[in-house]
Amino acid sequence: MERRPFDTLNDSIDKEVTIQLKEGQEIKGELKAFDAHMNLIVDKDKETLLVRGDNILFITFNKE
Fold first, then answer.
1. 14-18, 41-45, 49-53, 58-62: which range is least confident on average?
2. Domain spans of the chain, in order of start
3. CA–CA gap between residue 54 and residue 64 (Å, rounded)
């Protein structure tokens, strides 16, 4: 069966990810949720961030 990008995101819920933004900023945190527009909810330290999908260059899925 073919894997889709959303399958990988779904498998990464509650796991550490690194998000590279188009402006060069990097966000590391625990992926909590995502939607069809690839907007992400990420817990970083003691903050919860909403990362808009339009701003994402790529996502690295950190291995545990």
1. 58-62
2. 5-61
3. 27
CA dist list (Å): 25 to 39, 46, 56: 16, 19, 10
DSSP string, the chain: ----HHHHHHHTTTSEEEEEETTS-EEEEEEEEE-TT--EEEEETTEEEEE-GGGEEEEEE---
Q: Which CATH class is domain 5-61?
A: mainly beta
Quick: pLDDT tens for 1-34.
Answer: 788 889 999 999 999 999 999 999 999 999 999 9
